[in-house]
Design brief:
mainly beta, 182 residues, 14 strands
Length: 182
């Protein structure tokens, strides 16, 4: 549970939007992602968004005012390849642990969606995760098949997960198709 006060500057000019905000927490610590930090003042956050003829991108920087350095950076650009096909590349960097590159391809044809992605750990030089999602998307329900292959470098094992998700009026239910190996 977080209790906080926001100071936000939002500037939108045609194709660009810039957000800059600082968050003051009343509790003893705060989170950025899964990482917990002590203190009341969350890093200054600066976000830049743009969209030009199907191309879009964003960059979010977290500036730690105590350490006087950028503590985290998340960037993404999406490139339309065809009418219903796009390629996205995202880069996440964190001073403590993360340096990842995510490649994604997304397509849509009528009621069908296909999303694939590969997550690479740049810091340690290996493919961390592969994903495939096929969805039948209707107005009030969807059926989604998901395949995730996740490599854990610590255990040197690859974990595979298959799920079938049925969503009816925003009520998700997952059907696991395979049991994770121990």
């Amino acid at each position: 549970f977080d209790v906080y006060l926001n100071n936000i500057l939002d500037l939108t000019i045609m194709i660009f939007q810039v957000d800059c905000f600082c968050r003051l927490y009343f509790l003893q610590n705060y989170y950025i992602g899964d990482n917990q930090y002590k203190g009341h003042l969350k890093p200054l956050t600066n976000s830049l968004f743009f969209g030009i003829k199907g191309f879009s991108g964003e960059n979010t920087l977290y500036y730690d005012m105590k350490k006087r350095q950028i503590s985290r950076s998340i960037s993404r650009i999406t490139i339309p390849l065809f009418t219903n096909l796009s390629y996205s590349i995202s880069h996440s960097f964190d001073n403590n642990s993360t340096n990842q590159l995510l490649h994604s391809i997304n397509t849509r044809y009528k009621i069908f969606r296909l999303n694939t992605s590969i997550l690479s750990n740049i810091k340690e030089g290996y493919i961390q995760q592969k994903r495939l999602n096929i969805t039948i998307d209707r107005r009030c329900w969807y059926l989604s098949f998901n395949y995730i292959e996740d490599y854990n470098k610590t255990t040197n094992k690859t974990y595979k997960v298959l799920t079938l998700t049925l969503n009816i009026i925003n009520f998700n239910y997952n059907f696991p198709l395979i049991k994770p190996e121990k």
